[in-house]
Amino acid sequence: MERRWNGWGRTDIAPTLPEAASTMLAERLGPGVPLGEVSLEEAISLVPPSRLSESELWSTSPELRLRHARGQSLPDWLALKSGKMGHYPDAVALPDNDDQLRALLDLAREDNLVVIPYGGGTSVAGHINVPDSDRPVITLSLARMNRLLALDPISQLATFGAGVSGPDLEAALNAQNFTLGHFPQSFELSTLGGWVASRSSGQQSLTYGRIEQLFAGAVLHTLNERWVLPTVPASAAGPDWREAVLGSEGRLGVLSQVTVRIRPLPEKERFYTSVLKDYDQAVEAVRSLIQAGLPAGMLRLSHPEETRTQLALALSGSKKQWLDRYLALRGAEQPAMLVWEGGEQHRAIRRHLNRYGAVMHSQTLGQHWQRKRFAAPYLREALWQKGYCVDTLETATDWANIESLRLAIEHTLRHALASEDQPVLVFTHISHVYRQGASLYTTYLFPCGQDFDHSLLRWRRLKHATSAVIVEHGGTISHQHGVGRDHAPYLNTEKGPVAQAALRQLLTHFDPKAQLNPGALLEEDECGV
Amino acid sequence: MERRWNGWGRTDIAPTLPEAASTMLAERLGPGVPLGEVSLEEAISLVPPSRLSESELWSTSPELRLRHARGQSLPDWLALKSGKMGHYPDAVALPDNDDQLRALLDLAREDNLVVIPYGGGTSVAGHINVPDSDRPVITLSLARMNRLLALDPISQLATFGAGVSGPDLEAALNAQNFTLGHFPQSFELSTLGGWVASRSSGQQSLTYGRIEQLFAGAVLHTLNERWVLPTVPASAAGPDWREAVLGSEGRLGVLSQVTVRIRPLPEKERFYTSVLKDYDQAVEAVRSLIQAGLPAGMLRLSHPEETRTQLALALSGSKKQWLDRYLALRGAEQPAMLVWEGGEQHRAIRRHLNRYGAVMHSQTLGQHWQRKRFAAPYLREALWQKGYCVDTLETATDWANIESLRLAIEHTLRHALASEDQPVLVFTHISHVYRQGASLYTTYLFPCGQDFDHSLLRWRRLKHATSAVIVEHGGTISHQHGVGRDHAPYLNTEKGPVAQAALRQLLTHFDPKAQLNPGALLEEDECGV
Q1: I need a surface site. Which of A91, B122, B235, B524 has the fewest CB within 10 A?
Q2: Pick from B77, B439, B114, B118: which is nearest to B249 by CA?
Q3: Which of B398, B405, B440, B504 to mutate to test the interface with A (most CBs of A within 10 A)?
Q4: Which of the two residues, B299 and A326, has the higher pLDDT score?
Q5: pTM, full prediction
Q6: DSSP labels for B393-406?
């Protein structure tokens, strides 16, 4: 497959927007402002000279440097479409093995180079963006360290090169009748090492666990040495360092191998889409379901606003009319859509949902969701062509706080561009549930600004206002996307000064000159230089 | 209830050893050597003068200092029975609230005092033992900070003072139809703060999770400040500091409040004791059961040696004869005993076990186990009276390694006193299972030595040889008892130099003069003094 250099995913997938969706967006938001995009050739011509000379250890190819300069956040998209990346890595290293990786880090340490570990480049929080640095910057891609290295069927453990992508990892495991079961929306492009480094959560984490539960051991190359984190099922031998590597975002070192807990492929998965009459009751339904211990494999509950918008984006006129009529007939004027996986317990789950106002269960729509589960990011391209910017926010909080947090987030987003008299389309779903609470995943759309800078300004206003609201209302700044550079300013409020000082101390211990991914996780100047 | 000052548990419980057990021990180990015990009065008379004067913040009462000097390891028992504690705290503080706790720590910081946080005093790894220090030592008991402070039934979270004991915690939750479900063998005396600080695991952790999964948030008083660790169901916002507090064993600070994830009381628990014909097949049975995702609430599998010994300790002559005949009839010459909890799925679990050679399932024996689940430590007293020393070891490892680790541990223990021509009685059960692996819990008995010193020497030989074997064979030095002072020397091998250097850095950051529980977790002199 060829990968789109300035947007999401494979070049052979290019969805278009249904006419009804375009009409709805124009009505709700006003006309789109297509800003176009520069060609790859033009973008390459804008790449500045490297501060490093060519080496066995890396390449200074302008195209390679361009292709590794940005992730997939909206600011990244604006940079990619405009061809102006801000900063570029001076070189891209693609080590084949541990020895080459070690040699690169040893050299980086000696020469005070900055190193940015790079997995699938799918970050939406600025994890792999190049900081403004006086020091040369090398982006270190793990793409070639992507093989299955060991599989223990007794302990159900598999070790991979950290750069293995989701599809390659599942293919290697499926061939031996195993699965990891980790399916984030970025699955097609993101990598095992990236999942660990950013504390990723897959769509079926209710069955398989978050990456925290799947991560059993690793080889991590710190700036100074090779660190083997042993696999052990559970331990009381002091703090668990795996938990410090999880979410370390490249700041402690570079993951070269990761051992994960695998499972036999499931015999039968059953995805359903259900519709419930009332959102508040639907929230009660999923909370009571998880707290009762019913073994659902996924619970993804859309607010009526999202339900409406998703149906408009997904269904053609006649199908949509039929569904609207049916739901009205059943008294679901404000339908809340629940996508779930039920395995052997699907009947018990259906019965539970019926008690909370479910009016429809469709395995056909559930299977449709399953087939299209990684497709949503491609819609960004269709929206971009029509002149609309789209981004998402996500957080998690305790059940007692979930509705007030959702209302605060949505209110803030809807009014953040009021000074320009510009409405914002905002909708939310509950994406992951726990006994204690749940995550909220909010999508927001607005017409692009008059130009790239104006579009970025709009995003900054929306992002900053909402991020501040999230942490002030007791949510975490990220449930599944990580911190990167975009969320780092909000960690102080979320974690408090004691935790932040300890984190700074830990990073400084491993990396006294802040050479590894500086600015990610912890907002800082290039401390220690 | 009155608590035994020099042994385990309540003074009103005093089990005796069945005659058959005494006979068996004499046959296997030779005659016991009763060493007796000094009276409380005598032990108090041996308490040296305090280096601190009496204060509002603490007491220097010799009896209080004696009662807080030691835990429950075998060396602790030898100290308690002989009346010679080695070192004693200079004072015991029993703060009533956060302000008093804070005041104590502020004073300790200013005056360079050593502070040992104390929960239930049930450590079997030397967590709360007083180090040899030039500085005055205060043992800080959380016993009075033990109340239910908040309960959120929606998010199913409860906040307690960290010093709450197991029974008091469950009573407060049960009154509102909730449970924590954390039942370590030390349940009667151990405390919530201690569980968190030492990464405790309860007998039903398959249902409820280890304390890591139950721990949602806390207030931790570091030497310098009050640290609030917020509750959030899950987060990708960098490393999770809760995981550093878990297992920190008082070295980062003192837990004053802990928030835990609670659940509604279960409608029905079903405990069973099953007997399987063959141990290897029984290991396969529990591994395949957990890896198939069958929802057992507990799986505790005794090796035939333990099965035999436990039956001898528990059953009278005629009952034992009957059982032996029945098992022989069913072809179970080497029976392996499995205690398990099955809830709604008990039939599926029984069917699964039948496929792996189960010859008996008894709910009566299962319920007997449930009733007696916290009784085993009381047997130590009966054994002591007969002149036998008993201790336990525990570890965890991946399934592929479980049998070779068990054999190495048992072989080492059996031969560790060979130079004295002294056999050691050794038996093991698998106490906790995971998809990836399981924990091993080994009990060993030997006649006490000629005197207290000789007994301690025997224990040191056994403990050191086996601890080294555990970490060299890829086991963790502790699955559920923690590190304390006894296991600290073995962490270097288990964790490796990178992890150990980082841990040292972290402890030094929070506590530069090593005033909080020095010597626990990390073997060290009084660094930084």
Answers
A1: B524
A2: B118
A3: B398
A4: B299
A5: 0.97
A6: EEEEEEGGGHHHHH
What's CA B178's distance to the chain center, in Å?
24
Q: Least CA distance to A211: which residue of chain B?
A: B236
Query: Helix A491-510 vs helix B497-510: angle between axes, to the nearest 10 degrees?
Result: 130
Residue A462: inside a domain? no
The pLDDT of residue B527 is above 90: no
Are A236 and B152 an interchain contact pair (Cβ–Cβ within 8 Å)? no
What is the domain count for chain B?
A: 2
* Pairwise CB contact (< 8 Å): B439 & A291: no
Looking at the fold, whether B246 and B295 belong to one and the same domain comes out as no
Smallest Cβ distance to A154: which of B240, B399, B479? B399
Contact between A147 and A169 (Cβ < 8 Å): no
User: Tens of pLDDT along B20-46?
Assistant: 889 999 999 999 999 999 999 999 999
**Final residue of a structural domain among B231, B264, B297:** B264
- Counted across chains A and B, CB pairs separated by less than 8 A come out at 246
**Domain-terminating residue out of B369, B401, B417:** B369
Residue B16's pLDDT is: 86
State CA A46 to chain mean position distance: 29
Instruction: Tell me: is residue A119 an annotated ligand-binding position.
Output: yes
Q: Which CATH number goes with the domain that contains A284? A: 3.30.70.3450
Are residues B178 and B236 part of one domain? yes
Point out the residue among A235, A264, A399 whose CB comes nearest to the CB of B478: A235
Find out whether A265 and A256 touch, Cβ atoms under 8 Å: no
The catalytically annotated residue of B208, B356, B441, B444 is: B441
Closest by Cα among B523, B204, B528 to B342: B204
Q: What is the pLDDT of residues B473-499, one digit of tens each?
A: 999 999 999 999 999 999 999 999 999
**In whole angstroms, what is the distance from residue A486 CA to residue B343 CA?**
47
Could you say which of A201, A230, A247 has the minimum Cβ distance to residue B238? A247
- Considering the domain architecture, whether residues B211 and B284 belong to the same structural domain is answered as no
Contact B436 A157 (CB under 8 A): yes
Point out the residues of A that are catalytic. 441
Closest CA to B255 of B31, B101, B127, B78: B101
Contact A495 B241 (CB under 8 A): yes
Q: Is A117 annotated as a binding residue?
A: yes
Residue A474 domain flag? no
Q: Find where tokens 């007491």 sit.
A: B59
Tell me: do B279 and B363 sit in the same domain.
yes
CATH value at residue B161: 3.30.465.10
Angle between helices B317-329 and B304-314 (to 10 degrees): 150
pLDDT at B268 over 50: yes
**Cα separation, B259 vs B229, whole angstroms:** 9
Asked if B491 lies within 8 A of A237 by C-beta distance, the reply is: yes
| Residue B476 and residue A233 in contact, taking contact as beta carbons nearer than 8 Å | no
Identify all chain A residues contacting B154, using CB atoms and an 8 Å cutoff. 287, 398-400
Report pLDDT for B387.
Answer: 97
Question: How many residues comprise chain B?
Answer: 529
Task: Give this complex's ipTM.
Answer: 0.96
Instruction: Consult the annotation and say whether B30 binds a ligand.
Output: no
Residue A302 lies in a domain: yes
Are B163 and B257 members of one domain? Answer: yes
- Verify whether the Cβ–Cβ distance B439 to A496 is below 8 Å: no
Burial class (CB in 10 A: 0-12, 13-18, 19+), A100: middle
pLDDT digits (tens, 9 = 90+) for A330-361: 988 899 999 999 988 899 999 999 999 999 99
Per the structure, the complete domain to which residue A285 belongs is given by 271-369
Whether B214 is in a domain gets the answer yes
Q: Which amino acid is at B419?
A: S
- Closest CB to A154: pick one of B222, B237, B400: B400
Q: What is the pLDDT of residues A283-317, one digit of tens each?
A: 999 999 999 999 899 999 999 999 988 887 777 77
Is B241 found in the same domain as B168?
yes
Same domain for B316 and B286: yes
